[in-house]
Design goal:
2 copies of one chain form a homodimer.
Chain A lengths: L7 H24 L9 H20 L5 H14 L12
Chain lengths: ~90, ~90
């Protein structure tokens, strides 16, 4: 198994920029009370990061609609998948 | 960049076995009403799969305690990170 590495530096820089952007977003969301203050910022960033990838897979490979997937990603992040916590309307 | 591929088949088989086990777990949790019925099983499996990896990183690299991380992983899965849905006691 071999990978073409010519784009590695560009990819890495782009990914780091995205993580920095997501970190700033999470800090804002914690300040605004959307995400709980007791959640470690790195943990929340990792959750958003993986949700982007899983959502991309859901649309491109599983055939979920982009709208349903966006709703599912948001409710997964903020409300979880548990039956005791159905998604609430956030306006 | 090159990887040693000698263990690939074993790794893949182990990972697939773990995903099959997680899929059966998610189906049970949906039947028991712990995870909402409207959540696609593959989506829930992907969430558990990533939480295992993020939790491992949190303990091994960020210095979170195993107990705190397990609690955080469970509340992330079932209750989310949102301020409107603080983790509930599940017994």
């Amino acid at each position: 198994m071999q990978f073409d590495t010519s784009g590695d530096e560009v990819l890495r820089a782009g990914y780091e920029a995205q993580l920095n952007w997501t970190t700033a977003l999470v800090e804002d969301l914690k300040t605004e009370g959307v995400i709980r203050q007791d959640v470690p910022t790195r943990w929340a960033v990792a959750q958003i990061d993986q949700l982007i990838w899983v959502a991309w897979t859901a649309v491109s490979e599983w055939g979920l609609s982009p709208d349903d997937t966006a709703t599912l990603a948001q409710s997964t992040l903020l409300d979880g998948l548990g039956n005791l916590s159905p998604p609430r309307q956030r306006t």
